[in-house]
Amino acid sequence: MSQNKARLADLSLLGSTVIWGGTFPVIKLLVGQMTPHYLVGIRFLVGFLALTVFCLPRLRRLDGRILKIGTLLGLVLWGGYITQTMGLQYTSASKGGFITGLSVVFVPILSALWLKNPPRPSAVWGVVLATAGLAFLSLDLSTGFSVEIGDLLILGSAVLWALQVVIVARYAPQMDSLLLAWVQIGTVAVAGMIFAGVTESPPIEWGASLILGLLYLAVLATALSLAVQIWSQKYTSPTRVGIILAMEPVFATIFARIFLGEVLSAKAVAGCGLVLAG
What we know:
This protein is mainly alpha-helical. The chain has 12 helices and no strands.
């Protein structure tokens, strides 16, 4: 792989991570207007429709292999969303944020086991620093740390998101990135809408803030960012992807400070610095 393409891939993935960090304040504002599973289902449905415009000229390249791997990726991604949503009902947001960030640890482990691609020592130190930063950023140990059922569910979601990164690393280099993202997003949309229809009532009021928030989530944070992730992983390693994605809570904290007025503690600032160092 050329150094220029590897650098562009890392920067592109970092751009997606900035967008994903922005989803936290957006989702926090929208969950009062729409139930969680409908939010996921409609977000991915709109993202699928947006990406369809660009995929139509490429449909002749769609084959059974892309359908199979894209569907697998979609189910893994949807499973990550569902287990995280369920887990957050039974644990604190701070613990949930830290445990979700542990995907940065699981990515090199799964990569070494499945892809036979152990991380370099520098990447291992990056993982250690990023994990320490996530602990500073997310955890409040003043009340102690006990393991609850919600923690285990969110741990499952972290494993699933790490698995998604590793599956992309294994198969994306051989496939059309845009079509693979399209099938993945469509699978999440179908699974999300079915699950929402069974468990929740559909949204009733559609205000401007809800529509604009959904467009941000669907077009930028889903269609664009997932397509960029799959393309980027053709030119960078899974462990580097995991470390870059660990920046998501850092950007989420910054955006929460800017748009929601949340105060950054010295511990949170130190955590952001450690993740950036990683």
